[in-house]
Specification:
The chain is an alpha/beta fold. The chain is built from ten helices and 13 strands. The chain starts with a strand and ends with a strand.
Length: about 325
């Protein structure tokens, strides 16, 4: 069996910067209110008047960078895994769009719908395909276009101020040295809390004709709903559990972590985890201040930036962890 190892990383974020003060045009809020609760100062939102970015096209832009840095070509990629909660269309998913936009051979394309944990789940799937020898090079993408579906009003501010748009990508390849690459991945879910962080319609459970017939101005089913305090309380517990599980599986201690990259859900969650594990600032990478929560894209964007800034180096023990809608959560432990 092989290990899988990341050999190329890339990211893309829209040019349009939306600051906390910019949000005042839609809702009753302030820079102080948002920063106190989330740590976010600004985010990137696609501007439909100046950009033709979509979830898929952003993923392609990130993928091109990752492929080039990997030293391979698009024709060397054997499989595509695309993680998102905001595909261009209800169906088909973004994976096939990427295959087309990159003019790839007729390789397989898989879509992952695990929201904030999407990139962790995608890495785990890619790792297993490579471990079994089925594929040699796999392109993994996390991409989100949140801004098009957010409720830009005071009623929706609890969710809207948090989320941003962007994409990150990684190329995974075979690694024969068992001490390098992905060492283990750990996945969990708890569907009992599915509706605490969800978007219920339009869907087959609440279809378009029903929404249109009711024409209810108070209907918020087609906007994301989040029970913020409930999600926060569960996140800090599950983040910790996933990290400990990953360390234990590899006979590692918290002191062995060179870089922890948590899903950028909330800076306060990341700070809580950092304090709990007694990690220094240089052992944890956060960029939610600049991009907000980009869900499936947040870990690959952060991992790309950490690598670009020289904070992830060969031989480092890197831990990725995420928690989100579903509830789903998990971790990946790798040696760079």
């Amino acid at each position: 069996m092989y290990n899988s190892r990341i050999i190329g990383l890339g990211k893309y974020v829209p040019e349009n910067v939306v600051t906390n003060n910019d949000l005042k045009q839609w809702m009753d809020t302030s820079d102080e209110w948002i920063q106190e609760r989330t740590g976010i100062k600004e985010r990137r939102w696609i501007d439909p008047e100046t950009s033709d970015d979509t979830t898929s096209s952003m993923g392609v832009k990130a993928a091109k960078i990752a492929i080039e840095r990997a030293g391979v070509t698009k024709d060397d990629i054997d499989f595509v895994i695309f993680a998102t909660l905001s595909p261009d269309m209800y169906f088909p998913g973004g994976g096939v769009r990427v295959q087309d936009m990159l003019d790839m051979p007729t390789i397989g394309a898989l879509d992952i719908r695990n929201q904030c944990s999407g990139f962790i789940y995608a890495l785990s799937v890619a790792d297993q395909f490579i471990k079994t020898g089925m594929y040699k090079n796999i392109l993994v993408i996390g991409s989100e276009n949140h801004s098009g579906g957010l409720e830009r009003s005071t009623r929706g501010r609890g969710v809207t101020v948090i989320f941003g748009d962007g994409a990150g990508a990684a190329v995974l390849a075979r690694e024969e040295d068992s001490t390098k690459g992905i060492l283990s991945s750990h996945l969990h879910s708890e569907g009992a809390h599915a509706k605490e962080l969800a978007l219920e319609g339009p869907s087959t459970g609440r279809w378009v004709d029903t929404i249109m017939e009711e024409n209810d101005p108070d209907d918020t089913s087609y906007y994301p709903h989040m029970n913020g305090q409930f999600v926060f309380k569960h996140a800090v517990v599950r983040f910790s559990e996933a990290i400990i599980e990953g360390l234990s599986a590899n006979n590692l201690k918290k002191e062995d972590i060179d870089m922890l990259i948590p899903h950028q859900a909330n800076l306060r969650i990341s700070q809580f985890i950092q304090k709990k594990f007694n990690l220094r600032d240089d052992q944890v990478y956060n960029n939610i201040m600049r991009y907000g929560n980009t869900t499936a894209a947040s870990i690959p964007i952060a991992l790309t930036e950490a690598w670009e800034e020289g904070k992830v180096n060969e031989g480092d023990t890197v831990v990725l962890a995420a928690f989100g809608s579903g509830f789903t959560w998990g971790s990946v432990v790798m040696r760079w």
